Amino acid sequence: MQTIWLGGAEWQAVLRIGLGLWWLESWRHKDKKSWFAGGGIGWAGGIAEKHRWPVVSRGFDRLVKPHPRLMAYVVAYAELALGLGLVAGFLTPIALVGGLVLNLIYLVLMIHDWAEQGQNLMMALISAVAFFGMSWQVWSLDNALGLFV
């Protein structure tokens, strides 16, 4: 593969690190005090309640609504873990699949909000490209530790 400046594996690492920084920004910009007090889950609950697909509302009511504080921590710290894992390149394939799943959940929840969809679709696409491009081959702890070779 011919590329300008970096090789293909390095460009894959650039994508992976950029995606990790995006996840870290998702975590950083949250108002943690409001989020952990139930603000984020309450907001999502309002969206799920009026969702055009009844399965989303039922799923939210069964899985998230009974545990709002726990789910607030799960979502926030999943974003932090994804960001750190992708930037450092640690357990990268797991982080990429986890990020893809989280973006797909966000995509389904926010299906009516096209402004939000661009971000989720781009992050999901980068996750897929970074996964199938094996972006952990360079500039990663996975490579240094001989994981996923």
Unreliably modeled segments: none
Number of helices: 8
Fraction in beta strands: under 5%
- Report how far the terminal alpha carbons are from each other: 20 Å
| Structural domains: how many | 1
Computed structural class: mainly alpha
How many β strands by DSSP? 0
Rg of Cα set:
17 Å
Q: What is the helix content?
A: over 70%
Overall shape: it is: elongated
Oligomer status:
single chain
Mean pLDDT: 94
- What sequence of helices (H) and strands (E) makes up the elements? HHHHHHHH
Q: Characterize the biggest β-sheet.
A: none
Descriptive overview:
This protein is mainly alpha-helical and 149 residues long. The protein has one domain. It has helices at residues 8-28, 32-36, 39-49, 54-63, 68-88, 92-109, 114-132, 141-145. Helix 1 (8-28) runs antiparallel to helix 5. The protein is elongated, with a radius of gyration of 17 Å. 24% of the residues are buried. The mean pLDDT is 94. It is a multi-pass membrane protein. InterPro entries: DoxX (IPR032808). It is found in: Membrane.
Top keywords for this entry?
mainly alpha, elongated, transmembrane, 74% helix, single chain, 149 residues
